Amino acid sequence: MPQKESLLRLSRRGVLSSFAGTGVAAIFGGVASDYTATNVAATNQIDDIVLGSFESTLDKWQSDDEVSLSRVTRHDRPLAVSEGEYALDVTSDSTSTPTISRPITELNLATHPYFVADVVPSQIDGTNAPIDFRFRLYRPKNVLDGWSTQELVVESEPVTVPQAVPGRIYWDASDIKPELLEMGSHLEIGWYPTDRDPDSPDGAFEYRGGVVFDAIHATASVDPVGSARLSTMMRDLQFDHGTYVRTEVEDEFDTGETGTFVFDDGTAVPYRFEALAAERFLLTVAETEIKFGGGWD
After folding, report:
1. Longest pairwise C-alpha distance within the chain
2. Are residues 70 and 106 in the same domain?
3. In the listed set 200, 220, 240, which residue is the last one of a domain according to the structure?
4. Are the CB atoms for 169 and 160 separated by under 8 Å?
5. Which of 187, 220, 253 delimits the end of a domain?
6. At the N or C end, where does the chain have fewer CB atoms within 10 A?
7. Are residues 19 and 67 part of one domain?
8. DSSP assignments along 228-294, one per residue
9. pLDDT, tens digit, for every residue of 88-130?
10. Sign of the torsion angle spanned by Cα atoms 38, 43, 45, 51
């Protein structure tokens, strides 16, 4: 077998096996993937900037008076602490839209446009709905006023995590116009139950509950975002269709393959995996595209 074909086969099998592995891993707050483990481990410290490890401080994260921030240990919350021995415990008692934020003036968003964070939302009063999380970039309206007045620059699409279930939220901001990214000097994460409208004129929902955050990173590599997106998709598919059963390859071609992922209730979800260039791979599941590798900028 030619070396190029051999490497391609190994790469696509690694990605596809990672898809199957994330079913259980997502439920328990991790991503089981030979492919992603190898690639993330290869990412050096220059390519990965830690925005929240919480091992000794709150890492500059803050919130308003209605939201309390504290550090929690692995001993107290073993499933919520995903890296190291500490995580950030955020508790809201009555605010309608809880958020946390921190300055990112030291971060070059043009070179590190990918964000991930591990979260575990606790059960909250008044609803059993999953929780939508969004990343947002802000800038001051007037630099002379400091951060007394802020304005939104851009925000991510929501990533949904069930209550009391570990998950990973993510944002691929690489397609945001560079001039917009350059404006952002604060990063915010906000959350809200999916069955409530924070802008409803009928009265805002009072969010009473907590979220544990850990391993908040900005990275130059798309792999952590791809892993998180893939993990979230597998979790949702298994909630709807039962356990992942097998992969059925229907067609193989020079740069990839197509087939279906089969679940316990018989549902077959189509996929396409393709190597677009050296070390750049695209996995499409149903209509969702998941990027892996390099060379996307």
Report:
1. 65
2. yes
3. 220
4. no
5. 220
6. N
7. no
8. HHHHHHHHHHHHHH-SEEEEEEEEEETTEEEEEEEETTS-EEEEEEEEEETTEEEEEETTEEEEEES
9. 999 998 888 899 999 998 899 999 999 999 999 999 988 999 9
10. negative
Query: Contact 112/219 with Cβ under 8 angstroms?
Result: yes
How crowded is residue 167: how many other Cβ atoms within 10 Å of its Cβ?
Answer: 24
Backbone angles phi, psi at 192, to 5 degrees: -165, 145
Question: What is the C-alpha to C-alpha distance for residues 191 and 1, in angstroms, rounded to an integer?
Answer: 50
Residues 109 and 183 in one domain: yes
| Interatomic CA distance for residues 126 and 123, integer angstroms | 9
Cα dist. 147→111, 135, 151, 183 in Å? 25, 18, 10, 14
Q: Which domain holds residue 108?
A: 48-220
| Claim to verify: residue 243 and residue 277 sit in the same structural domain | yes
The C-alpha angle 111, 115, 120, rounded to 5 degrees, equals 165
**What number of other Cβ atoms are within 10 A of residue 186's Cβ?**
18
The β-bridge partners of 233 are none
Q: How many domains does the chain have?
A: 2
Structure tokens at 55: 């091992």
153 and 86 in a single domain? The answer is yes
Domain match, 22 and 87 both: no
| pLDDT digit string, tens, across residues 22-33 | 432 332 222 223
Q: State the Cα–Cα distance between residues 6 and 23, nearest whole angstrom.
A: 27
Phi-psi category of residue 65: left, alpha or beta, with phi > 0 → left and psi -120 to 50 → alpha? alpha
Mean pLDDT for all residues in the chain = 83
**CATH number assigned to the domain comprising residue 85:** 2.60.120.260
Structure tokens at 186: 């604060």
Unique residue bearing structure tokens 């308003």: 64
Say if residue 52 is in the same domain as residue 38. no
Q: What is the pTM of this model?
A: 0.84
Amino acid at 11: S
